[in-house]
Amino acid sequence: MALVAVALSVTGVAVVGHFRTTASEAVPPANYRAAVLTDHLPLSLNPLIDPEDPAVAAITPLLYRCLLQLDSTAYPAPDLASQLTISPTGLTYTLPLRSGLRWSNGSPITAQDAMATIQWVQSTAFPDPTLASAWRGVIATTSGQALILNLATSRASLGVALTELPILPLGGMPSTALAALAGHSTSPLATSGPYEVESGRSGVIALRSNPHAAVAPRLQRVQIEAMTTFAAAAQAFAAGSVQAVLATTPAQQAQLMKRHGATARDALTFGFVDLLFKENFPGLGDPAVRRAVADTIDRDAIVSGPLDGLAASQFGPIPAGIGWMQGEEPAVPADLNGAAAGLEAAGWVVTPQGYRARDGVPLDFQSSVPDAAPLPEVASMVAAQLGAVGIAVAVSVDPSATFLSDVLDTGEFQLAIASWDAGADPDLTTFWGSTSTPPNGYNVSGGTADPFLDSYLGTLATVTDQDQSLAAAHLVVQEMEQDAPAVFLYAPAEGLVVDSKSLSNVVIPAAGNPFSQAAVWVH
Predict the structure, then answer these.
(1) Residues 108 and 209 in one domain
(2) Per the domain annotation, does 110 fall within a domain?
(3) Number of alpha carbons in the 13 Å side-chain half-sphere of residue 244
(4) What is the CA radius of gyration of the chain?
(5) Rounded CA gap, 393 and 45, in Å?
(6) Most buried residue, 28, 129, 296, 454, by CB count within 10 Å?
(7) Shared domain check, 191 and 210
(8) 476 and 513, same domain (yes or no)
(9) Which among 49, 63, 8, 50 has a CA at the least distance from the CA of 32?
(10) SS3 for 313?
(11) Could you tell me if 493 and 249 are in contact, meaning their C-beta atoms sit under 8 angstroms apart?
(12) Domain containing 370 — which CATH number?
């Protein structure tokens, strides 16, 4: 997958459904630039086309709003909708829209726009089956200025799905135009966010303040320029022609921080990195061994070492970025003495070779890891930590492009370090449910089914009350601590590195999209 850097530049000061400049007009000079990466050119201006593209994800909060947004703890809260009411059965969602909302062209934002957006995602003309799957079985209707959603079965994930669906100005759009919409993703639509599209030409997209934005942005003009690689973006940052770059690895952030006056603002992702066990491999079928591994791992040393602080330690299956659920996963320090004692009690004794064994079965394993930085460095530190209690680990680095299909899905591993990201959705069934084995999900542990865990996961996936969700999460965490199908290591972060002399009041969320609060940044 090719990576392309995108620079965002901001100057002083509004597009509706077309560009307001011609190709011959010069883009106004910019006095602020920031760089992120994309894997696709030309860039999509439709946030529902290529939403996984990091550049599209960065631009989306500048242009569009959703019915709900994540609050500071990553819990769904009102945005375009003034509130969310869920029926006691969990089958009906009512979302009245705020009054006075307008698109950048002055037209009112309506519940029909929200309904048409959902129906387009559900249609055969929509090109992204993964995004569409989140809306399968949802029936959208309107009642006045309220959107009504009816479901066949209750699902906890819908609240988060509502924070991930930018509403588009599709109400009243003819069916022929809707059918062709995906093929015109580079053509601008009216926007609801702080900016609108002003002009576009090869590699350059200019945004300016949306005159109908609910809150006017402090920076009036944003210009998006394509660059070829992160190396080019970093070189531009070092030379002073770019004032900010989004770093996704510790090495990238370290390189950017060499510039005088550079400061970093870090935001957790909703991803997590774990150490997986193949439970049917000799030695790893013993829960005492898996728990000893969990007791041995020093997560803080990993975060401060190969991750250089660009992560947060994680102690259970719920991603650390989901702040409202973190009370269910208390931090547990490494306990090498406890790990060694547990292994001794289970009959695993140290051999002359330095590793432990029992009945001829050695605790001598291979750990598979994709060749995506910084995971190999993390795997090496984990191996060193386990060696201290008599568990030998050799690291095998495999191509990241085929790691899931050739290593994890096939079960061709003993230990494996993997990186996952399912967003802020608290539903963990796809990772740990007993029926979520490939190709139905990502449970690759090979362990026996745990009906209690399946029941707790089912509750967590369906309850919509926050207190009930926390209670279910507590039971999931407890049961998985006993089963120990994996050791959860950390949640990766991204770092927005900025030139502090050029930009101030750079507010970013604790977790999620670093650009979601860009409207308050000041030059």
Answers:
(1) yes
(2) yes
(3) 33
(4) 24
(5) 47
(6) 296
(7) yes
(8) no
(9) 8
(10) strand
(11) no
(12) 3.10.105.10
Give the tens place of pLDDT for each residue, 344-390: 999 999 999 999 999 999 999 999 999 999 999 999 999 999 999 99
Residue where the block lists tokens 């989004």:
246
Whether residue 249 lies inside any domain: the answer is no
End-to-end CA distance of the chain: 34
Q: Give the pair of three-digit tokens for residue 41.
A: 């050119």
Bridge partners, residue 81, by sequence: 97
User: How do residues 497-522 score in pLDDT, each as one tens digit?
Assistant: 998 888 788 888 999 998 888 888 87
Q: Is 333 helix (H, G, I), strand (E, B) or coil?
A: coil
Q: pTM for this one?
A: 0.90
C-alpha to C-alpha distance for 407 and 318, rounded to whole angstroms? 24
Backbone angles phi, psi at 57, to 5 degrees: -60, -35
Is residue 409 scored above 90 in pLDDT?
A: yes
pLDDT surpassing 70 at residue 20: no
Closest by CA position to 142, among listed 223, 62, 81: 81
Q: How many other CB atoms are there within 10 angstroms of residue 361's CB atom?
A: 16
Q: Do 313 and 232 share a domain, yes or no?
A: no
β-partners of residue 357 are 349, 362
Does the residue 334 lie in any domain? yes
Domain of 470 in residue numbering reads as 271-492
- State the SS3 of 455-496: HHHHHHHHCCCHHHHHHHHHHHHHHHHHHCCEEEEEEEEEEE
Inform me whether the pLDDT recorded for 100 exceeds 90: yes
Q: If you average pLDDT over every residue of the chain, what do you get?
A: 90
Query: 234 and 284: one domain?
Result: no
- Residue length of the chain: 523
Pairing of strands 271-277, 68-70: unpaired
Are 58 and 110 in the same domain? yes
CB count within 10 Å of CB 51 equals 17
The torsion angle over the Cα atoms of residues 52, 56, 60 and 63, rounded to 10 degrees, is -160
- Tell me whether residue 365 is in a domain: yes
Q: What is the CATH number of the domain that holds 31?
A: 3.40.190.10
SS3 at position 461 = helix
Domain count of the chain? 2
* pLDDT for residue 331: 87
CA separation (Å) from 288 to 56, 65, 284, 395?
46, 49, 9, 22
Instruction: Provide the edge-to-edge strand list for the sheet that holds 85-86.
Output: 85-86, 92-96, 146-151, 138-143
Instruction: Check whether residue 513 and residue 457 sit in a common domain.
Output: no
Q: Using the structure block, give the residue that is written with the tokens 């190999």.
A: 376
Burial of 370 (0-12, 13-18, 19+ CB in 10 A): buried
Query: Whose CA is closest to 487, among 337, 307, 322, 339?
Result: 339
Report pLDDT digits (tens) over 413-461: 999 999 999 899 989 999 999 999 999 999 999 999 999 999 999 999 9
- At position 271, the amino acid (one-letter code) is G
Beta bridge partners of 276: 416, 486
pLDDT of residue 32: 59
Q: Do 275 and 297 meet the contact criterion of CB atoms below 8 Å apart?
A: yes
Residues 415 and 516 in one domain: no
pLDDT-based confidence at residue 38 (cuts at 50, 70, 90): confident
